[in-house]
Design goal:
alpha/beta, Rossmann fold, 7-stranded parallel beta sheet, 11 strands
């Protein structure tokens, strides 16, 4: 039994007919029909009490949304029941569709959480059926005439020939080179772009491109949908991707996969420093350095990746 004063309306709602009155139905403006007693009525509804027009008389044409339907002091908002002073002046739909009001919520964390979620949803949806893929990293500042750019084109072509999709950051330089090589070889060329202060745009060799606002959502896609990394010479961004992958493999957050550095003259000093400083002082294990394969030969790099994959089968 409902508490005293709390009206409970069954579903569908049945409203008793007031004495001496015909049964009136709510109809849209201009909808004129006769009720069961044969009398003409114009857009009327039963009196539920508590709001304007609830006396059973004609409802004037609406110049705005109708107020919430109430039963005395009772208002239902989804599964919630509100009474007395807690009854809102507007329905949830009215507040949603009202264009007026502050826009500061666009820059607050609850809205950011939904935006972040949408980036994961879009990324997962776009890449879920990609198939075997290798993420290729390298500097966006390489010119098309550089030897490193040519190396990127070659590694992209070889990976496509081996049956791998090529995933890059979608930008210029080494990323463009790898995308170009994959595209020209008939493979799948993927670019995962990022919003930056100075827009790079997606290079023309990308077949499947996804843009991200947030680095961490983008990084997840590089790792989740790749079976290995190939890293060409690059700057801080390239180092960031390299060391994040190493940490995740080292800590077994992800299944170990091949990480190949192309360019011994560029990467050799870094490997030497890791051994002479980090390993020597016990910061990392000697076996952690073995997670990295260093070569100048793109053919050797692809063969190493294929051998690794065959070893997992």
């Amino acid at each position: 039994m409902a508490p005293e004063g709390l009206a409970v309306l069954p579903s569908p709602v049945t409203v008793p007919r007031p004495p001496g009155a015909g049964f009136r139905r709510w109809r849209g403006p201009g909808d004129e029909r006769s009720d069961e007693q044969g009398s003409d009525v114009t857009a009327q509804r039963p009196n539920l009490g508590g709001d304007a027009g609830g006396d059973g008389g004609p409802i004037p044409p609406s110049h705005g949304a109708r107020p919430p339907v109430r039963n005395g002091d009772v208002y239902r908002r989804g599964p919630v029941t509100l009474r007395r002073k807690l009854v809102p002046a507007k329905t949830t739909d009215q507040r949603l569709l009202d264009e007026r009001g502050p826009s500061s919520w666009l820059h607050q964390d609850p809205w950011r959480v939904l935006r972040i979620q949408s980036e994961f949803v879009e990324g997962f949806g776009a890449l879920a059926e990609l198939g075997p893929a290798i993420s290729v990293f390298g500097s966006a500042r390489l010119s098309r005439e550089s030897a490193e750019y040519a190396l990127a084109v070659e590694i992209g072509s070889l990976l496509a020939g081996a049956g791998y999709a090529v995933i890059t950051g979608g930008g210029p330089g080494a990323m463009e080179g790898a995308n170009k090589g994959a595209c020209e070889a008939g493979g799948v060329s993927v670019g995962l772009g990022i919003e930056l202060p100075h827009e790079q745009g997606m290079n023309e060799w990308v077949d499947l491109g996804v843009h991200f606002r947030y680095f961490f959502a983008r990084k997840t896609m590089f790792l989740k949908y790749a079976q290995g990394f190939v890293v060409l010479p690059g700057g801080f961004g390239t180092l960031d991707e390299l060391f994040e992958a190493l940490v995740l493999v080292q800590t077994e957050k992800i299944t170990a996969f091949p990480i190949v550095l192309l360019g011994t003259s560029f990467w050799g000093g870094l490997i030497d420093w890791i051994r002479s400083s980090m390993v020597a002082q016990g910061m990392v294990k000697d076996t952690d350095v073995d997670l990295i394969t260093l070569t100048d030969d793109p053919v050797e790099a692809v063969e190493f990746i294929k051998a690794w994959a065959d070893g997992l089968d």
